[in-house]
Write a structure and sequence with these properties.
It comes from Halochromatium glycolicum. This protein is mainly β. It has strands at 3-8, 14-18, 23-33, 38-44, 49-55, 63-66, 68-69. It contains no helices and seven strands. Strand 2 (14-18) and strand 3 (23-33) form a beta hairpin.
Length: 72
C-alpha cells in the first residue's frame, strides 16, 4: 500500500503521485466524491485503478493517503 500524494492542478483536476514509482497521473474518476466522503475506487487517465476506503470528512488537498491497487 503505497503513500500517494494528491494535489489540485491549475484546472481543478487532481494529480495522483506515487514517489517510489515516480508515477504521476491525473485522476479521471472517483467513486465517492461528496461533501461527506471522498474515496473508494479511483481510476486514473492511464486506465489503472486504485482503492482507498472512503475518507470522512473529505481531505483537503494537497494530502498524502495510503492506496492499494484495485483488482483489474
Amino acid at each position: 500500500m503505497p503513500n500517494v500524494m494528491i494535489r489540485k492542478k491549475d484546472d481543478g483536476g487532481l494529480l495522483f503521485y506515487v514517489a517510489k514509482k515516480d508515477m504521476e497521473e491525473t485522476i479521471a474518476s472517483v467513486e465517492t466524491d461528496t461533501s461527506d466522503a471522498w474515496g473508494g475506487s479511483v481510476e486514473l487517465t492511464d486506465g489503472s485503478r486504485w482503492y482507498i476506503d472512503p475518507v470522512s470528512p473529505p481531505p483537503s488537498f494537497p494530502t498524502t493517503l495510503r492506496f492499494k491497487r484495485a483488482d483489474s
